[in-house]
Amino acid sequence: MMLDNTDKDTHDKEGQDKKKRVNLTSDKRTAHFGLRGRATTGFPVKTRSKALSALLRFSHSLNESTELVAKLFWPEEAQQSEPEILEEVYKIATQDLAVLGHVPDMVWFHKFEESSTATIRKALGINDAGSRVLYIIVFRKLDPITTLIGEEFLLAWWEVVKGHRALWKNGVHHRDINPSNIMGYRLRSRFMSVLNDFDLSITDASKGFERTETAPFMSLELLTPEAIAGEVEHVYRHDAESFIWVLIWVCLRYEKGKLLGKGRPLDKWLMLDARRCQEKKCSYMFMVDKIPPTQSHRKNFIIAKKCLGMVYECGGPLPSIPTDDEVVFNTWFLNHVPQN
């Protein structure tokens, strides 16, 4: 499918009954960058279809927004698709209140079979394994968690941590925790946080050895040469540590719900390779008090330091990394985050 800088209509093979307009020039267009790219891009959607509007009545969350966004990306064909993963997530949500209302609401999706890079590989006589295919998924619109401050932000972050734990216990492993993937919506006056973007998730049926996350938020262990080479399995404590780095990141870089201007802390982390990023993060753990948090997150930073302190203890002179997921959850989070 060719895309230019104009609005584009998409529809099912059956015809126009789910016709929608994807605005490729919108200033709200977003892109995601990681160690390995799926060329993920998001666009606002203008629906001109009664059928698509009707799908909004069948919600998988408590989100009542009628605004939609489209996600275009190129996942590996061999991996379980994000729509399939989300169907598993929705089943868990019906049984677990920690998940209900805290997951993205998928309205519609389409796989462009004809876009498979396997066709190109075959034509060129390339027989090595691996191919990608274009997907488009339409979701209800969500807002960034970084717009929140103080106790409201901490509560939203904590609810996603708990929801993520519930999903992991039920066999859905997210594996890409970063600020862009923690979003939410308003349910009356309350902000309902959402763990978003399940395109890198896996289920218990498979093991996660590939590295696809965003370096500044990755566990220190996953930034080692062995892990980058695919020799370290991604386990729960790695995602748990990512949540802590996200908390540190927001506390230092956002004031009154807005990103600080030039010269903000930790900017260099975004431009480093895995090895150098790990070095910078390790150095930061020795000088955590030298970079003050913003006023909006002063109290949250106290919690963030306590959580990060547990990571430091586990990787200190006498490493004692817990292997039990529940121990990680309790000692890294539950013992430090205020419970309402």
Describe the structure.
The protein has 340 residues and is an alpha+beta fold. The chain has two domains: 1-141, no CATH class; 143-340, Transferase(Phosphotransferase), domain 1. It contains nine helices and 14 strands. It has helices at residues 50-55, 82-93, 117-123, 150-169, 225-228, 236-253, 274-286, 298-314, 325-334, and strands at 8-10, 20-22, 30-31, 41-47, 68-73, 106-112, 134-140, 143-144, 172-173, 182-187, 190-195, 202-203, 254-255, 258-259. Strands 1, 2, 3, 4, 5, 6 and 7 form a seven-stranded antiparallel sheet that branches. Strands 8-10-11 form a three-stranded antiparallel sheet. The protein is globular, with a radius of gyration of 20 Å. Residues 1-18 and 31-37 have low confidence and may be disordered.
Mean pLDDT: 84
> Can you tell me the CATH architecture of the largest domain?
Orthogonal Bundle
Overall geometric form: globular
Q: What is the CATH topology of the largest domain? A: Transferase(Phosphotransferase), domain 1
Sheet with the most strands, sense and barrel status:
7 strands, antiparallel
Give the name of the CATH superfamily of the largest domain: Transferase(Phosphotransferase) domain 1
Catalogue the unreliable spans.
Answer: 1-18, 31-37
**Gyration radius, rounded:** 20 Å
SSE string, helices as H and strands as E: EEEEHEHEHEEHEEEEHHEEHHH
